[in-house]
């Protein structure tokens, strides 16, 4: 196992240790990844970051309404107009990050053994590091090189009767990131291809 797997924090270990049947049941029912409050914060961090200029302008505007004093160069109207693109980006990224928590679900009639083999083969090929590995619930992380453009991904796989639920997001335990340079898509598609090939 690579030495950089040590960067998995005690925080994450605690989160994974309390992951129980209730959480898995919720994910099966909603078709969405369930994250801790802290992981949700880091996952959506890009949204408040883009809104920070607007928040500061709004605070200054409230102070002006209360005190009547303002020492800025630009008018409030100019600053609010200037922040419109950032607000639009924040809204767009909210929906992008929201949709990334959805599982991609495929149905298959192959045996559980073949599914497990497909998962294990994919994990080996893409260097996924196993954090949870039960028969029907698995969590992996990746620790790619710096030049890949990704801080790492978190891959979740749930087996639910004839369904295989797959999700890959930027690792919420790493630096806030909204791009994986196609690695999340690759993680999911590679496993889907392995399962579909095993069905033929």
Structure description:
The radius of gyration is 21 Å and the shape is elongated. It starts with 9 loop residues before the first helix and ends with a helix. Helix 4 packs antiparallel against helix 6. It has 200 residues and is α+β, with helices and mostly antiparallel strands. It has 8 helices and 5 strands, in the order ααααααβαββββα. It has helices spanning 10-17, 21-30, 37-43, 46-67, 76-82, 84-99, 112-125, 183-198; strands at residues 104-107, 129-133, 137-141, 153-160, 163-170. It has 2 domains: 27-32 and 103-198, Kinase associated domain 1, KA1 (TATA-Binding Protein); 46-95, no CATH class. A 5-stranded antiparallel sheet has the order 1-5-4-3-2, covered by helices on one side. Mean pLDDT is 86; it is low at 1-9.
Keywords for this structure?
single chain; disordered N terminus; elongated; 5 strands; 2 domains; TATA-Binding Protein; 50% helix; 200 residues; alpha+beta
Structural class: alpha+beta
Rounded to an integer, what's the Rg over CA atoms?
21 Å
How is the CATH topology of the largest domain named?
A: TATA-Binding Protein
Shape: elongated
Instruction: Tell me how many strands there are.
Output: 5
Query: Distance N terminus to C terminus?
Result: 33 Å
Strand content: 15-25%
**Taking all residues together, what is the mean pLDDT?**
86
Q: Per CATH, which architecture of the largest domain?
A: 2-Layer Sandwich
Count of individual helical segments: 8
Largest sheet: 5 strands, antiparallel
- Overall tally of domains: 2
Compressed to H and E, one letter per element, the order equals HHHHHHEHEEEEH
Fourth-tier CATH superfamily name of the largest domain: Kinase associated domain 1, KA1
Highest-level CATH class of the largest domain: Alpha Beta
The largest sheet has its strands arranged as: 1-5-4-3-2
Helix content class: 40-55%
- Low-pLDDT regions: 1-9
């Amino acid at each position: 196992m690579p030495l950089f797997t040590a960067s998995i924090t005690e925080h994450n270990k605690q989160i994974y240790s309390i992951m129980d049947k209730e959480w898995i049941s919720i994910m099966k029912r909603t078709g969405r990844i369930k994250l801790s409050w802290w992981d949700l914060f880091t996952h959506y961090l890009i949204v408040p970051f883009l809104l920070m200029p607007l928040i500061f302008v709004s605070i200054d505007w409230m102070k002006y309404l209360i005190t009547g004093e303002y020492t800025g160069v630009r008018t409030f109207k100019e600053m609010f107009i200037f922040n419109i693109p950032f607000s639009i980006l924040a809204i767009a990224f909210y929906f992008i990050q929201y949709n990334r928590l959805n599982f991609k679900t495929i149905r298959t009639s192959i045996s559980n053994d073949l599914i497990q083999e497909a998962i294990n083969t994919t994990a080996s090929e893409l260097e996924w590091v196993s954090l949870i590995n039960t028969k029907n619930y698995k969590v992996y992380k990746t620790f790619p090189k710096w030049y890949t453009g990704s801080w790492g991904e978190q891959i979740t796989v749930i087996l639910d009767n004839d369904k295989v639920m797959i999700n890959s997001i930027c690792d919420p335990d790493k630096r806030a990131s909204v791009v994986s340079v196609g690695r999340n898509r690759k993680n999911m598609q590679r496993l889907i291809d392995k399962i579909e090939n095993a069905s033929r």
